[in-house]
Amino acid sequence: MRLNKIMEELIQKVKNEEKDNTTGKFLDLFCPTFIEWDECVLLNYGNNLNDMAEKFAPNNVISDRTQFEATNNHIHLIDTFPELEENTNQILRIALGLAEVWTNKLKVSFPSEKFHLVISHDEFGSTIRFYKIRTNEIPWIDVNSIDNFKNEAILLIEI
């Protein structure tokens, strides 16, 4: 890598500045970190993963690890980018970009695992989520039923 003196000074200045909230959220989404926890893969974004229980325990709302991942690994992009509330097409564009990044990162980080990455989109914007495919659990979304969704657009990527 080569850079001139002006760029060197700018980079040093940026590194010394505190990340603002928008920049931090953007970088965390587009440079995701995933952690493994009790046979689950979790997105380290906005969750306080330090407060998690030692082991997964089903309850009356979340019955298995697949539902747990699908619930914990979802981002409502309008919450992250509220300035785009009136431009849901731009939100979808961001979701599609995130899908590429997350797909590649999951493939590299967990090459022996299979995942579903799901983007849902409606008049309120896009939600992106992922979960691991398990032979002993029902997928969060049935691949063959995505055309049954009449009020939202669904994109499902098998990783």
Structural description of this entry:
There is one protein chain. This protein has 159 residues and is α+β, with helices and mostly antiparallel strands. It has one domain. It contains five helices and six strands. The strands form two sheets. The protein has a four-stranded antiparallel β-sheet with strand order 3-5-4-6. A two-stranded antiparallel ribbon has the order 1-2. A hairpin with a 2-residue loop joins strand 1 and strand 2. The longest helix is centred in the middle third of the chain and has 22 residues, at 88-109. The model has no long low-confidence stretch (mean pLDDT 89).
**What is the 3D shape?**
globular
Stretches where pLDDT is under 50 for at least 5 consecutive residues are none
How helical, in percent, are the residues?
Answer: 25-40%
Strand content: 15-25%
Strand order in the largest sheet = 3-5-4-6
What count of domains describes the coordinates?
1
Structural category: alpha+beta
What composes the largest sheet?
Answer: 4 strands, antiparallel
Question: What gap, in angstroms, lies between the N and C termini?
Answer: 33 Å
Short description:
This protein has helices spanning 5-16, 21-30, 65-72, 77-80, 88-109; strands at residues 34-37, 40-43, 74-76, 115-122, 125-132, 153-158.
